[in-house]
Amino acid sequence: MFEPMAEQVVTITLYTDAFVVRGTLATRQRRLSDILNQTDYDFIVLSDVVIDEFGSHSQAARSEFAQVNLATVIFGVADLNVETLPELRTPKIAEQALISVPPFKITGRIHLLPNRDLREALNELTGRFLPVTEASYWSDVVGEAKQQANMVAVNHSRAHIMAPHREVDPWAGLDRGAIAGEAGAAGDRQPAAPAPVEQVAVEPAPAANPWGESGVANPWGDRTTG
């Protein structure tokens, strides 16, 4: 038998359509997805809360406590990083995925049951909040820069698209060093000097003699007298 985990205080960040809510929660759970899935209520109460509104330039709101409606939560991030006990772990296969939960996008590893094709495994992927490990998340719409987390818990009902994802390196198979060397050589190469133009002296043409070869003009031309 395993001993239950001692209660600890974790920091949780919840993202909704309009707000980022940060606070703390005392829990015995080992993962954020378990915290959000195993609550008996449709909300969660955080302590020492800071609330930021997307696109707002006003100061963040602070409160000693805040109740957050879980139906409005797109995904959550926590500083909780505890491995599941081996005796509680269900064998699964990690699959790289792209998840669209507007206005955010998330990439990371979803964990599927083995011995199934991908379509069947996705059909069996259930749960109110799904764990995504080795995750990156960002939003171009609200100007949230890309961030990384060991795990995020995604609200399954809010996900528009969940699909296998492969990150492609555009430089794969190319010798980056050689390309950089060629680019550097091209930048350092000076344009060739123009070839010198050979100058040829041209003798002026002799002036035409208006009187012919005799040098005396024949006033009668070539006429013949009879």
Topology, element by element:
Elements: E1 8-16, E2 19-27, H1 32-37, E3 43-53, E4 61-69, E5 73-78, E6 93-101, E7 104-112, H2 118-123, E8 129-139, E9 144-155, E10 161-164, H3 176-188
Antiparallel strand pairs: 1-2, 1-5, 2-3, 3-4, 5-9, 6-7, 6-10, 7-8, 8-9
Describe this protein's structure.
The chain is mainly β. Among the domains are: 8-78, SH3 type barrels, CATH 2.30.30; 86-164, SH3 type barrels, CATH 2.30.30. It is built from three helices and ten strands, in the order ββαβββββαβββα. It has a ten-stranded antiparallel beta sheet. The longest helix is centred in the last third of the chain and has 13 residues, at 176-188.
Q: How would you spell out the order of helices and strands?
A: EEHEEEEEHEEEH
Unreliable residue runs: none
Structural class: mainly beta
Indicate the radius of gyration in whole angstroms. 40 Å
Tally of strands: 10
Helix content: 10-25%
CATH architectural group of the domain at 86-164: Roll
Overall mean pLDDT stands at 80
Summarize the structure.
Among the domains are: 8-78, SH3 type barrels (Roll), CATH 2.30.30.100; 86-164, SH3 type barrels (Roll). A hairpin with a 4-residue loop joins strand 8 (129-139) and strand 9 (144-155).
Which short descriptors sum up this protein?
3 helices; SH3 type barrels; mainly beta; 226 residues; single chain
